[in-house]
Amino acid sequence: MVKLLNETQVSEILQKSLATLRRWRVIGQGPEYIKVGPSVRYRAEVLEQWIDRLPSGGDGHRLAEHRGNVRRISARA
Prior knowledge:
Elements: E1 4-6, H1 7-14, H2 18-27, E2 34-36, E3 39-43, H3 44-53, E4 61-66, E5 69-74
């Protein structure tokens, strides 16, 4: 059985407001959702995959913009 989450549950998981989730849906961003009648639902598995694809950091480097180009700068510098 597929586990479906409502928008309040997803809001709590992502620590984003309901307004943000609703705005993402309007502009076609954020995690994939389905409509069950008038209700919005998110598949738990799809939400997890979406989170896994988000950019992450914390590898001891930071990104800096230099004249429109992005280059890596060591945190030790």
